[in-house]
Amino acid sequence: MNAPYHDVRFALRALRRAPVFTAVVVLTLGLGIGANTAIFSIANGILWRPLPVREPDRLTLIAARNRAQGGYSDFSYPDYEDFRRDASGFEDIIAYVPTALSFSHREGSERIWAEVVSPNFFSALGVQPTLGRGFDPGDAAGAAPTVVVSDRFRRRLALDQSPLLGWTLRLNGHDFTIVGAAPPEFHGVYQVLFAPDVWLPVSSYDLAFPGTPGRLHRRGATTFRLMGRLRPDITLTQANASVAAIGRRLEVDYPATNAGFDAEAIPELAARPEPGAARGFAVAAGGFLVVVGLVLLIACANVANLLLVRATVRRKEIALRLALGAGRRHLLSQLLTESLLLGLVGGLIGYVIAVGATSLLGAEIRFPTDIPFLFDFSPDRRVLGFTLGISLLTGLVFGLAPALQASGPDMLGALKNEPVLGRGGRWLDLRGALVVAQVAVSCILLVGTGLMFETLAQLKRLDPGFESRGGMVVSLSPALLGYDQKQGEAFYRRVLEEVDRLPGVRGASLAQNVPLEFSASGGAVFVPGQESKPGHESGDPMLWSAVSADYLGVMGTPLLEGRDLTARDDSVAPRVAVINHTMAEQYWPGTSPVGRTIRLNTLDGPPVEIVGVMADGKYRNLEERPLPYLLLPLLQNYTGNVTLVVRGADDLLEQLPAVRRAIHAVDPEMPIFDPKSLDQLIEGRALLGPRLGAGLAGVFGILALGLAMIGLYGVISYPVTQRTREMGIRIALGAPLQAVGRMVLRDGLRLAGLGVVLGTAGALGLTLIFRSLFFGVNPTDPRLLLPVPLLLIVVALLASYLPARRATRVDPIIALRSE
Fold it and tell me: Per DSSP, what are the bridge partners of residue 538?
């Protein structure tokens, strides 16, 4: 009845008597389990952690699916009202849309982020503000503007609880009264990584989206996402049928705006971070879990080898216990208890490592934007359960084979203290196989790491299509303050004049979107002669940006033919555009496109004359293939959100305060956000993903290499100790010392060589399967493949050197006398 208790006590005493062995094992396991727990915690934080609301498992996203293109879209507010009224399978449905706001305070103005939500937002989710209230029908009836702040924004403003309610925030040039503060754990529902600063009721829609009066009630203004809570007696299939029927009715009633879209109900967890994108994120998370799982396998192989060595040391003890009547099952139970204890302690260390690693990662990830991304990877009960499960499984995996081997020794040989068999013995075969597996897996990981670093290097060598050194960008949004087109154009003109006058500034321009930013604009382009071709009836989708005069010169983008856009290309001048080289070759190969015309968005739109051809660039990401792209004059294509591009000295960011003063000299309330150099734009935006991937792969590769080296050293070192008598006899009979050393080195190189061969073959196969992950890299290039096997051979030589050196120093007299 007390057998488990006695097994645990015995195991603790046994481990306490071998502190070095115990420390090495739990640290090895801690590193492996910690890496797995950290990756699982990241995936859990993004994909699997439930929202902190009432009954989150019943939350369902209602999305509009485009039948022709297959993507997902949003709904209009009138659509939301129809769904809320007619979708009987839901207890309630909410609507929400994110937006940026101008926040004015004593130090100036900045951009913050909000969710504009239906009045039932907090009540339907079951979220109770920690202070004050959420929204109610009175807020939706046109009362004084109200706002609920996030806990993080409240702490940032240093508002304690006493003066919070009734405090006024100036947003988009209007005063909003704070009526509540959200709980610390609640960050909205738009995206799991998006943490808005404030929430506004839908009655403030026109204030949140100035310049669009009446848009809230337009059927075609599809900006809202919908989420509902299923009734307890309704299945997802029934809910899907219900929303699909409403979608079909809306398509019949409003064909001008709703034709071609189906309504679909998707579980909230299956819609992260975007509808249709959860599968890709899950595959990526699974890939990283496989990588760290391989690291854990290497750690398990190391520990199994250590346990086999320990079992050899304890042969006489175990044989004595068997001779005195101890049952093999009982011995097996005690040895497995030791393994499970080691696994649990290693899991505890791994959990601590994972907590530190995920906290550090969450604090260090920074995108070059003011969008409030929240990287909360803190472990929860699910992560704790994962760690406990993997710790127990690991204890069984690395402990079972050594326990079986140890509990069935040759009792007579062990009691007579006879040496263990040499390389031909069964347990040495097992230990050698474990080392071969370690080296093979390390080879696979290191080859993958090398390919990822080479991918990063290739991306850094790419020409982005502009000169990054000496360039700075700052984003502005007159639309947030309600500027109309005339006011906005006057503001842009004065800002460019003020900035151009600053010392050290060689030029300034404005752009709707700059390359490699998070946002991109575009539409349909109709090229004469292409309309009759299959697939071109509705125009060709294309990216473009509206820019002010001298944009190419300020960005440092070469002009290949024709002219740049100028201040003369205003609203009364003929419409013009500058296209890139890829677009010129796609539609007018071998001829000059200058003077040709295209039409934008509609076939009967005004003609747009091509006046110049610029060099190609990278517009969405560095990995993209060459894309057609065009620039349009900002004065002919007004937008209320622009990026100011400033060209000057290399340390232009030092002039950011002067640029701010120049902008605020035109309008003190204008929010200025996302300031960064063009170098930071490339490093922090375009290269962030590859850098993180290469960094993680590098950490796992180095960890695997270190574990493999330790394992190889252990499997060579211990047999040297066990074969002392044999080596003494060899030396006594005249064997050269170098020959004895070469014998030991040969054993290590034989294991490492087999592991390298198997690992190289496995790496080659896997990289060919996943070659799309490596940009500009040939996975079969010998220059990339050969360094890893050579490195592992060198590591094998280093790991075998000390045992070989010790073997050559065996004194034959002492060795024979000890036997």
Answer: none
Evaluated on CA atoms 787, 790, 794, 799, the torsion sign reads positive
The CB density around residue 481, as the number of other CB atoms within 10 Å, is 22
Q: Are strands 629-633 and 471-476 parallel, antiparallel or unpaired?
A: unpaired
Which residue, chain included where needed, has tokens 């309008």? 667
pLDDT in the model for residue 816? 53
> Which phi and psi angles does 709 have, rounded to 5°?
-65, -40
Burial class (CB in 10 A: 0-12, 13-18, 19+), 189: buried
Q: Of 22, 32, 31, 89, which Cα lies nearest the Cα of 62?
A: 89
138-152, 451-465, 804-818: which is most confident: 451-465
Cβ neighbors of 416 (< 8 A, separation 6 or more) are none
CA Rg value for the chain: 34
Cα three-residue angle 561-459-446, rounded to 5 degrees: 160
Which positions ≥6 away from 19 have C-beta within 8 Å? none
Residue carrying structure tokens 């026109």: 206
pLDDT higher than threshold 80 for residue 345:
yes
Question: Does residue 465 surpass a pLDDT of 70?
Answer: yes
Residue by residue, DSSP assigns 50-101 as PPSSSSGGGEEEEEEEETTT--EE-B-HHHHHHHHHH-TTEEEEEEEEEEEE
**Could you give the CA distance from residue 295 to residue 307 in angstroms, rounded to a whole number?**
19
pLDDT at 219 over 70: yes
Q: Give residue-wise pLDDT tens across range 673-688.
A: 888 888 888 887 778 7
Judged against a pLDDT cut of 70, whether residue 502 lies above it is answered with yes
How far, in Å, CA of 491 to CA of 664, rounded? 11
Whether the Cβ atoms of residue 421 and residue 725 lie closer than 8 Å to each other: no
Pairing mode of beta strands 559-562, 629-633:
unpaired
Alpha carbon distance 390, 342 (integer Å): 12
CA distance 631 to 509: 13
Average per-residue pLDDT for the chain:
81
Whether the predicted pLDDT of 275 surpasses 50: yes
The pTM assigned to this predicted structure is 0.74
Residue 421 DSSP label: P
The candidate with the shortest Cα–Cα distance to 99, out of 177, 213, 190, 193, is 190
Q: Which residues fall within 8 angstroms of residue 261, CB to CB, at 6 or more apart? A: 64, 65, 66, 67, 73, 247, 251
Q: What is the pLDDT of residue 413?
A: 47
- Between CA 612 and CA 569 the distance in angstroms is 13
Span 708-723, pLDDT tens digits = 777 677 666 666 655 5
What contacts 175, CB < 8 A, 6 or more positions away? Answer: 145, 168, 169
618-647 residue pLDDT tens:
988 888 889 999 999 999 999 988 999 999
pLDDT of residue 731: 66
Residue with tokens 């990526």: 284
Separation of first and last alpha carbons in the chain: 44
Report helix, strand and coil shares of the chain as percent, to nearest 5. Answer: 50, 15, 30
Summary count for the chain: helices (H), strands (E): 26, 22
pLDDT digits (tens, 9 = 90+) for 432-448: 777 788 788 888 888 88
CB-count exposure of residue 689 (10 Å: 0-12, 13-18, 19+): middle
pLDDT tens per residue across span 571-594: 899 999 999 999 999 999 989 999
DSSP string over 598-667: EEESSTTSPEEEEEEEE----SS-TTPPP--EEEEETTTS--S-EEEEEEE-TTGGGGHHHHHHHHHHH-
